């Protein structure tokens, strides 16, 4: 079963509003280079690889490579975990729009 990006984003935003891990438990993004941080920010907002590619004027394959490196550097296993890491690190904050 797959959830739409819109539903996933709303679920994560709801979680982030009600769950604030201690600062020591937040994802450390220092290992990421600038472009990887930008990509993670957009992943956290629910954008797909083609959408990120268009926004950053990159190829979809380059975005895929950045996502793979982000997952590896952060010790994550899925894009969903990357979204959670983006919220927990404060890179993405819940929007007030429901």
Offer a concise description of the structure.
Helices cover 59% and strands 0% of the residues. The chain is mainly α and 98 residues long.
List keywords for this structure.
mainly alpha, globular, 98 residues
Number of strands: 0
Instruction: Report the span from N to C terminus.
Output: 23 Å
How would you state the average pLDDT, rounded? 83
Radius of gyration based on Cα positions? 13 Å
Considering DSSP H and I runs of 4 or more, what fraction of the residues is helical?
A: 55-70%
> How much strand?
under 5%
**Main β sheet profile:** none
Overall form: globular
Number of helices: 5
Q: What series of H and E elements makes up the topology?
A: HHHHH
SSE-based structural type: mainly alpha
Task: Indicate the low-confidence ranges by residue numbers.
Answer: 22-26
Task: Describe, in plain words, how this protein is organized in 3D.
By secondary structure, the protein is mainly α. The longest helix is centred in the C-terminal third of the chain and has 15 residues.
């Amino acid at each position: 079963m797959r959830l739409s990006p819109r539903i996933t984003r709303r679920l994560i935003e709801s979680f982030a509003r009600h769950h604030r891990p201690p600062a020591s438990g937040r994802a450390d993004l220092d290992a990421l280079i600038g472009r990887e941080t930008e990509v993670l920010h957009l992943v956290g907002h629910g954008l797909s690889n083609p959408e990120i590619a268009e926004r950053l004027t990159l190829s979809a394959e380059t975005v895929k490579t950045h996502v793979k490196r982000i997952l590896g550097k952060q010790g994550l296993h899925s894009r969903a975990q990357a979204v959670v890491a983006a919220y927990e690190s404060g890179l993405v904050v819940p929007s007030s729009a429901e």
